[in-house]
């Protein structure tokens, strides 16, 4: 009984699907990063747009919160550019920044609930897409 010593290679179809999944995650991260960037600008420019929630445990100055959203959105856009170039560092940082943005959007649910929940879903998909695809050789 002999066993083959050749390394297992993924099929071309599986590699194409994995590459497509990463590109979709990159596009989603780019779009969601732009949306967070714009949300940060809205909070900095005019925080009267946001709903006031007097009994929420996590209370923030909305101008400061706007700067946080702005910075995280810019980082997400930069990381998405790295993902479009298939950089390994971008996959690692992409998971991290998407996780931070999930936390940021969770904390801002009382101010913009539908928007926050939508972006949480986007970032959760980005994390899934970047973690499920095997590392390229």
UniProtKB/TrEMBL annotation:
TM segment ranges: 21-45, 65-84, 89-108, 114-133
InterPro entries recorded: DUF7144 (IPR055568)
Keywords, sorted A to Z: Membrane, Transmembrane, Transmembrane helix
Pfam entry (one): DUF7144
Domain (DUF7144): residue spans on this chain: 22-134
Protein name: DUF7144 domain-containing protein
Protein species of origin: Streptomyces actuosus
């Amino acid at each position: 009984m002999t066993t083959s010593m050749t390394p297992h290679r993924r099929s071309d179809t599986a590699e194409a699907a994995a590459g497509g999944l990463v590109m979709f995650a990159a596009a989603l991260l780019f779009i969601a990063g732009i949306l967070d960037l714009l949300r940060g600008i809205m909070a900095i420019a005019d925080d009267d747009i946001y709903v006031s929630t007097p009994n929420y445990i996590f209370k923030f100055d909305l101008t400061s919160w706007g700067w946080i959203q702005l910075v995280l959105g810019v980082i997400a856009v930069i990381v998405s550019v790295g993902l479009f170039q298939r950089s390994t560092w971008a996959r690692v940082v992409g998971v991290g920044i998407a996780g931070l943005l999930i936390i940021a959007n969770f904390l801002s649910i009382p101010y913009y609930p539908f928007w926050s929940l939508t972006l949480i879903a986007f970032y959760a998909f980005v994390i899934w897409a970047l973690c499920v695809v095997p590392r390229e050789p």
